[in-house]
Fold:
Amino acid sequence: SQQGEEDPQALSIQEGENATMNCSYKTSINNLQWYRQNSGRGLVHLILIRSNEREKHSGRLRVTLDTSKKSSSLLITASRAADTASYFCATVRTSGTYKYIFGTGTRLKVLA
Amino acid sequence: GAVVSQHPSWVICKSGTSVKIECRSLDFQATTMFWYRQFPKQSLMLMATSNEGSKATYEQGVEKDKFLINHASLTLSTLTVTSAHPEDSSFYICSARDRQREPSDTQYFGPGTRLTVL
Structure:
């Protein structure tokens, strides 16, 4: 399967703590994107990091990319109950037809 | 900007009937639209890619006669689940890509359609 993997599969933390999710992929990529999905809803785009970038910030989000290890991490700082959702990474390959390869996802639960 | 809608948001149908799901890009022209299927607590699986005015490209294992996709305009794609059976019950999500918008590699997702086949 081409599908990427994310860990942990599930994460439960207290409000105010930081949450870190990791994503590993298998092929060379142009970029990697992170999405959030609230239960029973569509995906909301969070952040895109290109293959020549190592770190990117957006508000309370920090994303890193290590192309040598084919991995990325998403850090959510000072988490809130509203951050409770599933988080997916999606990669776009450098070759072949354009499409997303999704990771398996991390289910984050932030306890108030 | 980059809003994608889906209709209906949920549908319940009897086994053997056909169901049509619409996906619309509301404020941009979608050169490409994608249809995904998602089972509970699992990731999204790409079913097919459709470009406006041409036939959809289906992923391996997806029956094209079962899941009919039409992309008649730059703002509308439809997925028809023909002769639906209980195993077709799932969450179907569409996305759209606008190659004129930066970043051009980003897909924008609809809210999804929950299909339940009795």
About this structure: DSSP finds no helices and eleven strands in chain A. The CA atoms of residues 15 and 112 of chain A lie 5 Å apart. The interface with chain B takes residues 3, 30-31, 33, 35, 40-45, 48, 88, 90, 92, 97-100, 102-105, 107 of chain A (CB under 8 Å).
